[in-house]
Fold this protein.
Amino acid sequence: MTYTKIDELIGQIFVSVTVNEDKSEMVMVSSTGDKYIFEHHQGCCESVEIEDICGDLSDLENSPILSAEESESDNINPDGVPIPEYQDSFTWTFYKFSTIKGFVTVRWYGSSNGYYSESVSLDKVAA
């Protein structure tokens, strides 16, 4: 498994894009069999998971990725999202993708006591 950058996804064709049941991992399987895994490498006292998906993940399948970008915010919650009582430290990570079929934004929410990472990693597992 190797760390990869989001722009490596541009031009890729994915045959499968899935999110696991507990929303802690998103896996994109390319037409060449490579797997791109979005996940948080758990430490101790933090929680990182997919909070929301805007769009249809199937729009990312069987069509080249035209754009892929990542952005983070740790100073404000998105509009309409209340601040939880336990939120000592937090990070919102947004992944925005487009194909000719549509746009998809995957919003991750990470929270901790302030001493642990709240980031999302993108790892590649070669076929």
